[in-house]
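Chain A, query sequence.
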Amino acid sequence: MNKSFNVNGACFPTEHYMVDLDGRLKAIKSLVDSGKYFVINRARQYGKTTTLKMLGHYLKNEYVVLSFDFQKLSRSDFEEEHFFVQALSREIIRKRTLAAQIPEDISKEFYKYSSDKEGNFRLADLFNYFSIWCEKSEKPLVLIIDEIDSASNNLVFLDFLSQLRGCYIDRDEVPTFQSVILAGVYDIKNLRQKIRPEEEHRYNSPWNVAADFDIDMSFCPEDISGMLYAYEADHETGMDCTRIADLIYDYTSGYPFLVSRICKLTDEKVAGSEHFPNKSAAWTKGGVMEAVKMLLTESNTLFESLTGKLADYPDLKKLLYSLLFTGNSIPYNRLNDSLKMAEMFGFIKNANGNVMIANRIFETILYNLFLSEDALDSGMHRAGVLEKNQFIKDGHLDMDLVLKKFVVHFHELYGDQEERFLEDTGRKYFLLYLRPIINGVGNYYVESRTRNLERTDVIVDYRGEQFVIELKIWRGNAYNERGEKQLAEYLDYYHLQKGYMLSFNFNKKKEIGVKEIRFKGRVLVEAVV
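Chain A, predicted structure.
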């Protein structure tokens, strides 16, 4: 069977190209060996299900693994306690891998529970037989439950958690599970909050016995290159696996779905297209950038889920908007509800004590979403739409002309606005003008390492060419000269000879316009509005 890159459901080593999970599985097993109960909380499509399936195989020689996927249970299974007991019992007896590991007398009880129509059995009965099973089993039992979010609005599930908590507390007296692993997007406190929103119950979680789970489940560049080497062994494209892995990581920060999606698009959509006729042509920087462009324009379940959260949680949307457009530095604090929610859904990460958007892909998706909402009432966007054709010459983007025209339009539309208004929105108006010009052909992203209140670097990729545009607030000539030096150093990083500076100047005597200077062997185009 030919392997492929997979973004739909769990991955299997015999069918799919995968990163090597052994290191993560070993780390998780150490928690199991120590008897920990814990929760794997990660954003959607972060590889939780694949990890749990692989973990089940990894543990099977030393443990009896009892695993459930709560997505397989229906809504009615959570409505009443005896329905829940019946559903769990039914799932247990359906698992062929457990048949030889369940004592015969316990198996009979699960069969009895699974067909209970009268509501005679309760959770306490189920846990009693779990305990007997644990006592009789030659191997310790490990309980794994995936997709716990499916039970998020059900009090029966909270009672189930309370039973597990009681088992953990009494484990010195009553035989119970060696370890319990729950997996989902929401943490247990958030489940409690969804069910009982009253303030006095918000943090009254029945799962306060959980150990910390700090294992990194993102893919590092070495993980990605290992997967690419396996692909290369099958296809012999001649790709530079390390370089391509670094490029994919730069855009995804190792978010598992995004990594696999870019690889899948490169392999199945880019290869064989007009500009990339075969796999060798596709597995290059240009081919991967084409896959990134495809990813940014598609509608997939992950992006739909993320943008849906913005409608559900207005404070979350305000936080992300502020982070993207105002340049304000937001200290990372896990006690902040909005930050905690943004991290839980995968929007942000902790970068040296400050909040950052999780990766370039999410950042661009959010920029595009917010800009599209503002575009209808934006004169800058309309100007970009009307004039976009004049900026493309022989397939090349004329960034010099883009800045010249932007200066003219910005001065006409917003030249008389107050300083505070322009500080908060100047960057947004440049992106509103730029986006329709490069839309469909080029990409852009904001370089996180230079984003702050006074300076932001926008990187534009257009048909294989890169442009670095530094956006900044004018703070005098000395500050501007430092900016020139920083931009020149940044051009060295990108191996470029030409860069661009766009300054928002609030001096009443300012001289607007565009000029070209030479600085340490580099050409800098400086625009002032």
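The longest strand covers residues 465-473. The chain is about 50% helix and 15% strand.
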